[in-house]
Specification:
Structural class: alpha/beta
Number of helices: 21
Distance between the termini: 18 Å
Strand content: 5-15%
Shape: elongated
Radius of gyration: 26 Å
Number of domains: 2
Helix content: 40-55%
Largest sheet: 10 strands, mixed
Length: about 525
């Protein structure tokens, strides 16, 4: 499912109306029906409803939804519309006239909100540029203070469709019903918190009209089943990929151990872990299925800067199908040499994680030039702090603009970027972006990123890099959800994710959107007539 900015959505609307010939009022009726259906589905006990409407198309959608609810469900519907009729935009004026004729009561002063069971927010739509000012700011505050359930039309009033930034005041919705396609503001934090659950309603806009112009997509679980690698009956371990993981230092051997176990659990046929010679016994005592490679070291367990020659001379060198570089390796000047050697000489898929990224960032322009020169683009998996070091941006700039920050970095530096935060964003060198909205706050624990690097290392060696990242990020997020299901949120460990990778595969293979709709959704199409 594509994700769009406000300008792209406006372009789609315009083409639908002017080129396809679907009247704007037809689109408005379809949108209103979607909002009314959501109210019926989620708030069946709400008998008295207040629509808070602006003077534009968003207000028209809300008024029409109120009219549908009154006619279909015999509910008492009032509309707060603080404008004269001649101030309303044309389609909103039509909806006002129709609603007036069927007996819907309009108010120019905000009625007491405690009298209502539900509020429909239809003030500002996706074309609005924050912040809200003047009387509407006071009204929004009153809506939030009322603690009444809120259904937002298209997007909560005050939220930007183009980023995750929040400038108060903003309506805090329980349900948001958006139209045709979700927008950036629906999925990026902190704005996503104000959207509540997001339902995407088809209103007859042909979303393929923009074609290749829209390069941002929401990852949908039902599309992942076909990405899972299928093992041939005659396969064998080397055919399923041999992952080389390089990292670890004193006090941080757990990082490569978790990455290795995750790689095996994710499907790698073989896994070898290279770490400092003095630390190798720790790995030998912790890993059973995986192999180890003792490597030359410096003081305090740091890998020697010239380990590349040792790695290249390994008898298994030609059999490795992918590498993961960086978990637990430490951030030190000589580590930059290790990263540079792998970028220059490793001619297979390469995942750079954790201190691999920090050392790369410390290399400055030299590191980025090495990224750009790679024939097989490297995969970088930074969290927000590491992305700050790579880009020099503030954390707020990254979090609220994850999609465009990731896209720009991947395009400019010829790499795949997996930007990890409460949302994980995958960007490709060609400018495509895929947004994952699964996962749980329970995953905010040390080692969770190492588990992801192991999963990705296993997958990039046996399928296309883009598909491997989409599948791997999803497996990781769902494993977190399943681990939380079996434990308390506070008690989930990174190793619990490893132990749920198998269940994550099964979840994807047997995905049932109806069950997911009931239990855990954040952005969902209206599947199978559920609404």
């Amino acid at each position: 499912m594509k994700l769009v900015k406000a300008s792209q959505m406006q372009d789609l609307d315009s083409k639908t109306i002017n080129e396809i010939g679907i009247p704007s009022l037809v689109l408005m009726e379809n949108a209103a029906r979607g909002v009314a259906n959501a109210v019926i589905r989620f708030f069946p006990q709400a008998k008295k409803i207040l629509v808070v409407a602006g003077k534009g198309n968003n207000g028209g959608d809300g008024i029409a939804a109120g009219r549908i609810l009154k006619i279909r469900n015999r509910r008492e519907v009032h509309v707060f519309l603080p404008y004269e009729e001649n101030e309303l935009k044309p389609d909103c004026r039509v909806q006002y006239q129709i609603a007036s004729k069927i007996g819907i009561k309009f108010f120019k002063e905000l009625p007491p909100l405690e009298e209502y069971d539900l509020i429909i927010d239809a003030i500002f739509g996706t074309g609005f540029t924050p912040p809200i000012k003047g009387r509407w700011a006071d009204i929004v505050k009153k809506i939030n203070e009322s603690k009444k359930p809120v259904v937002a039309v298209d997007i909560p009033s005050g939220i930007s469709a183009d980023s995750g930034e929040v400038i108060e005041p903003v309506v805090k919705a329980d349900i948001t019903v958006t139209f045709a396609l979700p927008k950036y503001g629906h999925v990026l934090y902190p704005a996503a918190v104000y959207c509540g659950k997001v339902l995407v309603r088809d209103i007859s806009i042909p979303v393929d009209l923009l074609g290749e112009e829209i390069k941002t997509e929401l990852i949908e679980i039902q599309n992942l089943k076909n990405l899972i690698p299928q093992r041939e009956p005659y396969t064998y371990k080397n055919r399923e990929g041999h992952v080389l993981i390089i990292g670890g230092s004193s006090g941080k051997t757990g990082a490569v151990i978790m990455a290795a176990k995750a790689a095996t659990e994710a499907g790698a046929g073989l896994v070898t872990v290279g770490t400092s010679q003095s630390l190798d016994p720790i790995l030998e005592n912790s890993l059973i299925e995986e192999m180890t490679m003792p490597l030359p070291e410096m003081e305090k367990g740091f890998l020697h800067p010239h380990i590349w020659d040792f790695v290249e001379s390994d008898p298994n060198f030609e059999r490795y199908t992918s590498a993961v570089l960086g978990p637990g390796m430490g951030r030190y000047k000589e580590g930059q040499t290790i990263v540079a050697d792998f970028l220059e000489n490793w001619n297979r898929p390469l995942v750079i994680d954790a201190d691999g990224i920090n050392n790369l960032a410390d290399m400055g322009k030299e590191g980025k030039e090495l990224l750009k020169k790679r024939e097989i683009p490297a995969v970088l998996t930074p969290h927000v702090g590491e992305m700050q070091r790579l880009t020099g941006l503030y954390s707020k700039e990254i979090i609220t603009n994850q999609i465009e920050v990731a896209r720009r970095f991947a395009e400019e530096n010829n790499c795949y970027l997996v930007l990890k935060s409460a949302r994980t964003v995958i960007a490709t060198p060609g400018g495509e972006v895929f947004v994952n909205v699964r996962g749980t706050p329970a995953m905010a624990k040390g080692g969770v990123g190492d588990v992801l690097s192991g999963i990705l290392g296993a997958l990039v060696g046996k399928m296309s890099i883009k598909e491997a990242l989409i599948l791997g990020v999803s497996l990781h997020a769902i494993a977190g959800e399943l681990a939380e299901r079996d434990k308390d949120t506070e008690s989930v460990r990174a190793t619990d994710l490893i132990n749920h990778i198998w269940a994550s595969y099964k979840f994807i293979r047997n995905y049932d959107p109806k069950e997911d709709f009931k239990k855990n959704y954040s952005v969902l199409r209206e599947f199978l007539g559920l609404l």
